[in-house]
């Protein structure tokens, strides 16, 4: 025990480094986690995700005006031209508008096109035509996205499946490289992160589109990265540190990796802030999802993943290399 | 201690050098350019065309340079992007609208020596370059239905021929033929006949009493073949049509079972793009006019083939159309008993009936096939106020592609013989097939990104990469000093390698791709942070500076590898399930993870070894 310093039977220093008693707060942290997850699930159940165009189908048109228009005017112009249920919002600046049309509009247009190939109505061109008629300055068609409802449904299924598949593969890898208790800890932490990020989007009713789905998967990638760094150290310390309680070993490991955890989260958050502030409207929600995910992911590697290990009574024996197990057998009478 | 053998330094240097070389083309901004190509591939686009175009630009006072004749087109570079449209109009006016396609393009300015090494810039996705993306769904149900309708009349005639009197043969729910019989005897006769004549149909018995039925369906495999045929057919037709648009690098690809993706970078006029993609080329079958027919009843058409046109000019055909192209379901090259090429044509059921009615009393006369191309050409007109405006005018261009004697009454299947060569037969079959779409298509997804948004996206993307990089570099320098400097150099090399690998793989850079790059910056330093904090720890444990460096790198290794592999797994899954933009993100993230493992582990180590290795060190600046 030359490496450790104890106060009242508790390790307070290991290898010259202060050991923080992370596990003392595990009950409180668990409570916070559970509350967050419950609130998220409740928000998802009540509000639901505000699915973006990619998943619901529909049409989204992004137009730039020379002179800032009045939103109500634009809305009534569209209404008069037969675009029922158009939602018009400002996008980025007051001279740029985002017009959303419900899926039925695109669908009826598509059917019209299917019947009469020569018609080939382009929804974007039609909208610009209508708006140009009523506007003094020029109008710049910046972006049109029309997604058929069946595509949206497929993407929704693919996205959900992909997330489950990612979790399964990560679990298998961790089980293989570490041990099944670690795999369960890692996956519970990941599910925790995903639910909270989704819950965040449900609570604040933010648009959940394909890029946000990509961000959620990236959060899985980041969070597992973080968890594995912590696990790697726990595994190492279980083998190295003698005569210490599992809680103490986890405390030591957390304290040792704390600097790194902080530093990496910080640099990643720095670049994400850069993306959020300078990356433009299109990837705003993408960076937001990642920022939330990284904060939660950092917390979960410490307090969810490691906590699960404690709850499952992780022991030294779980981590001893198989060769040594054989040697112990020989020692038995 | 902590010294790398020379070859390791050299290897790292060479890889970094190659990275720099292959990333370099991205530094050269492309020139705005116009590209002139022929409406048909047979038309030669050569020096003459170039001189005409140059003269047109001279007259219009538009500055240009670097005109070059390429394989099938001519390229002219312009000084400014604003002059692209006026230049296009000037050239199109000079060359005429019918034979040449003038397209806006961006010409790479990669120096020759880089080109020779196979280095080229990254492709920009539609969200950065601007352009249109269409996803079209092929209505495969309709081709199955058409096919089944064809079977109904065939089944009727075969049953009649075998004397298996039926009460009725009908199509039920698009996919099932039901033949009903009065008694068991007739049904079993019918069953035997159908089994012999239509081996591809799956037959089952049903019904009772006075109403005994045979139900016939196509096997799943048969249906899949039909659907595949329809999709590939439409794909070919679409490719031909897209080529007419004269877009620099179009993508026309099948996606999934029954969808086709069309991406046209740089195209702004969606209306025109949709018109051409959705346009209808068609076929018409008409009898040759009798010599004594009145002029009001006949029409003169030229041959499409140049040689035939030179030899015979054209022919008079009747005004009455027997059938048109939608009725042709298939046309394939075959060979007759003596080995001469022929084209076997299959019509749908109604087409077969109509063809039969028209030909059974006209044996011995000639029947012509007309190829109808609808072209939309811009035409200058004066509007009410006397201003010059350009309108799209539709012209139907009808030419004879075959004129052959009817040797016997024709039905659903017939053949055209007397073709000069297999190549001629091949071309005829292609024309017959490409005439109309095999199955109707409709647009299920449409994305248009205007050029202004594309340019903005590049601007914000570059800006966020710069700011993100700056922030991370400052952070690393403050926290890890000399080691932070090493990490900064490694990070820079990592970005260069990332760009180089993407350029070599021909990957497409999208806005989410840039986001992936930014995220890579943040995560790439993680490996360095792991190593450096480990070194600090080892120092605190009382290790000497040299052994702290060495054990710091060694001990951090397993965590780095495990952490990166799991992230890579997630990125690969992301690629597999994602479409377009998400894949762009997944690609940059995956490549970034791989290159960062190299630079952060080997690159940083080399720099640290170079700086501290092999000498007595009292204190590490970390």
TrEMBL record, chain A:
Q: Does the keyword Protein transport apply?
A: yes
Whether Cell membrane counts among this entry's keywords is yes
What InterPro entries does the database record attribute to this sequence? SecD/SecF_arch_bac (IPR022813), SecD/SecF_bac (IPR022645), SecD/SecF_CS (IPR022646), SecD_SecF_C (IPR048634), SecD_SecF_C_bact (IPR055344), SecF_bac (IPR005665)
Give the Protein export membrane protein SecD/SecF C-terminal domain ranges.
131-312
Membrane topology per the entry is: Multi-pass membrane protein
Highest taxon of the source? Bacteria
Q: Where is the signal peptide?
A: none
- Spans through the membrane: 28-46, 159-176, 183-204, 210-231, 262-280, 286-310
Q: Which UniProt keywords apply?
A: Cell membrane, Membrane, Protein transport, Translocation, Transmembrane, Transmembrane helix, Transport
Q: What does the UniProt entry say about where the protein is found?
A: Cell membrane
Q: Tell me which HAMAP family the record gives.
A: SecF_B (MF_01464_B)
Q: Which family does it belong to?
A: Belongs to the SecD/SecF family. SecF subfamily.
- Subunit composition? Forms a complex with SecD. Part of the essential Sec protein translocation apparatus which comprises SecA, SecYEG and auxiliary proteins SecDF-YajC and YidC.
- Biological function: Part of the Sec protein translocase complex. Interacts with the SecYEG preprotein conducting channel. SecDF uses the proton motive force (PMF) to complete protein translocation after the ATP-dependent function of SecA.
Name of the protein: Protein-export membrane protein SecF
Gene that produces this protein: secF
From TrEMBL, chain B:
Q: Which InterPro entries match?
A: Acrflvin-R (IPR001036), SecD (IPR005791), SecD-TM (IPR027398), SecD/SecF_arch_bac (IPR022813), SecD/SecF_CS (IPR022646), SecD_1st (IPR048631), SecD_SecF_C (IPR048634), SecD_SecF_C_bact (IPR055344)
Q: Where is the Protein export membrane protein SecD/SecF C-terminal domain?
A: 445-602
Spans through the membrane: 465-483, 490-508, 556-577, 589-612
As for membrane topology, the entry says:
Multi-pass membrane protein
**Ranges for domain SecD export protein N-terminal TM:** 1-104
Subcellular location, record wording: Cell membrane
Per the annotation, which location comes first and is thus the protein's main one? membrane
Taxonomic superkingdom: Bacteria
The entry assigns this protein to a family as follows:
Belongs to the SecD/SecF family. SecD subfamily.
PANTHER family hit by this protein:
PROTEIN TRANSLOCASE SUBUNIT SECD, PROTEIN-EXPORT MEMBRANE PROTEIN SEC
Which protein are we looking at? Protein translocase subunit SecD
């Amino acid at each position: 025990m030359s490496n450790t310093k104890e106060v009242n039977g508790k390790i307070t220093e290991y290898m010259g480094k202060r050991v923080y008693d992370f596990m003392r707060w595990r009950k409180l942290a668990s409570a916070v986690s559970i509350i967050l997850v419950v609130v998220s699930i409740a928000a998802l159940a009540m509000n639901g995700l505000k699915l973006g165009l990619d998943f619901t189908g529909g049409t989204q048109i992004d137009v730039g005006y020379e002179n800032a228009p009045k939103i109500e005017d634009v809305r009534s112009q569209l209404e008069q031209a037969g675009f029922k249920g158009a939602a018009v919002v400002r996008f980025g600046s007051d001279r740029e508008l985002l017009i959303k049309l419900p899926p039925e509009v695109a669908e009826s247009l598509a059917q019209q096109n299917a019947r009469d190939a020569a018609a080939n109505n382009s929804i974007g061109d039609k909208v610009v035509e209508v708006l140009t008629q009523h506007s003094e300055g020029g109008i710049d068609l910046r972006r049109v996205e029309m997604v058929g409802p069946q595509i949206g449904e497929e993407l929704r299924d693919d996205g959900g499946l992909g997330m489950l598949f990612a979790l399964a593969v990560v679990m298998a890898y961790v089980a293989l490289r570490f041990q099944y208790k670690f795999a369960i800890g890692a996956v519970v932490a990941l599910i925790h992160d995903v639910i909270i990020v989704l819950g965040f989007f449900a609570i604040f009713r933010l648009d959940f589109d394909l890029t946000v789905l990509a961000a959620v998967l990236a959060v899985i990638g980041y969070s597992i990265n973080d968890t594995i760094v912590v696990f790697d150290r726990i595994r190492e310390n279980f083998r190295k540190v003698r005569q210490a309680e599992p809680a103490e070993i986890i405390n030591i490991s957390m304290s040792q990796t704390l600097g790194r955890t902080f530093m990496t989260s910080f640099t990643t958050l720095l670049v994400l802030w850069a993306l959020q502030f300078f990356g433009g409207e299109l990837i705003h929600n993408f960076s937001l999802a990642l920022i939330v995910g990284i904060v939660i992911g950092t917390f979960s590697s410490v307090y969810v993943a490691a906590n699960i290990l404690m709850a499952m009574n992780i022991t030294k024996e779980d981590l001893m290399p198989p060769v040594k197990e054989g040697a112990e057998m020989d020692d038995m009478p | 201690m902590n010294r790398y053998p020379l070859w390791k330094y050299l290897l790292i240097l060479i890889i970094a050098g190659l990275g720099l070389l292959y990333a370099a083309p991205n530094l050269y901004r492309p020139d705005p350019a116009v590209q002139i190509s022929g409406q048909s591939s047979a038309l030669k686009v050569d020096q003459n065309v170039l001189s005409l175009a140059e003269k047109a630009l001279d007259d219009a006072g538009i500055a240009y340079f670097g005109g070059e004749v390429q394989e099938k087109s001519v390229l002219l570079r312009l000084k400014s992007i604003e002059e692209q449209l006026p230049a296009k109009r000037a050239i199109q006016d000079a060359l005429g609208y019918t034979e040449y396609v003038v397209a806006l393009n961006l010409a790479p300015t990669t120096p020759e020596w880089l080109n020779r090494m196979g280095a080229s810039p990254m492709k920009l996705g539609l969200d950065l370059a601007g352009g249109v993306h269409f996803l079209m769904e092929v209505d495969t149900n309709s081709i199955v239905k058409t096919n089944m309708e064809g079977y109904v009349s065939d089944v009727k005639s075969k049953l009649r021929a075998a004397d298996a009197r039926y009460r009725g043969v009908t199509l039920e729910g698009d996919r099932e033929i039901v033949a009903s019989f009065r008694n068991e005897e007739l049904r079993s006769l019918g069953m035997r006949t159908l089994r012999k004549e239509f081996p591809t149909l799956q037959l089952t018995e049903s019904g009772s009493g006075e109403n005994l039925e045979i139900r016939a369906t196509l096997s799943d495999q048969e249906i899949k073949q039909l659907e595949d045929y329809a999709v590939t057919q439409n794909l070919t037709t679409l490719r031909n049509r897209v080529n007419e648009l004269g877009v620099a690098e179009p993508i026309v690809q099948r996606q999934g079972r029954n969808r086709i993706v069309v991406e046209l970078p740089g195209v702004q006029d969606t209306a025109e793009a949709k018109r051409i993609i959705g346009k209808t080329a068609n076929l018409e079958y008409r009898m040759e006019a009798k010599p004594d027919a009145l002029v009001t009843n006949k029409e003169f058409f030229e041959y499409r083939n140049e040689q035939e046109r030179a030899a015979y000019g054209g022919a008079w055909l009747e005004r009455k159309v027997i059938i048109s192209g939608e009725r042709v379901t298939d046309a394939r090259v075959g060979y007759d008993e003596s080995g001469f090429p022929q084209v076997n044509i299959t019509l749908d059921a109604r087409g077969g009936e109509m063809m039969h009615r028209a030909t059974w009393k006209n044996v011995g006369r000639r029947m012509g096939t007309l190829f109808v191309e609808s072209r939309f050409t811009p035409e200058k007109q004066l509007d009410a106020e006397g201003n010059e405006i350009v309108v799209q005018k539709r012209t139907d261009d009808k030419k004879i592609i075959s004129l052959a004697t009817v040797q016997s009454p024709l039905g659903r299947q017939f053949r055209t013989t007397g073709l000069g060569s297999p190549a001629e037969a091949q071309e005829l079959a292609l024309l017959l097939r490409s005439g109309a779409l095999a199955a109707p298509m409709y647009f299920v997804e449409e994305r248009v990104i205007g050029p202004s948004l594309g340019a903005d996206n590049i601007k914000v993307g570059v800006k966020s990469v710069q700011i993100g990089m700056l922030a991370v570099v400052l952070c690393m320098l403050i926290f890890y000093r000399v080691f932070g400097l090493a990490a900064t150099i490694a990070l820079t090399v990592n970005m260069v390698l990332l760009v180089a690998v993407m350029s070599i793989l021909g990957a497409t850079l999208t806005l989410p791709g840039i986001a992936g790059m930014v995220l890579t910056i943040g995560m790439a330093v993680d490996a360095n942070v792991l190593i450096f904090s480990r070194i600090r720890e080892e120092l605190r444990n009382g290790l000497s500076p040299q052994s702290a460096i060495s054990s710091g790198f060694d001990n951090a290794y397993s965590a780095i590898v495990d952490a990166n592999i799991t992230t890579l797994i997630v990125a690969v899954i992301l690629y597999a399930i994602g479409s377009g933009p998400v894949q762009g993100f997944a690609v940059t993230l995956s490549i970034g993870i791989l290159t960062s493992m190299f630079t952060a582990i080997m690159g940083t180590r080399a720099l640290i070894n170079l700086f501290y290795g092999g000498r007595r060190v009292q204190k590490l600046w970390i």
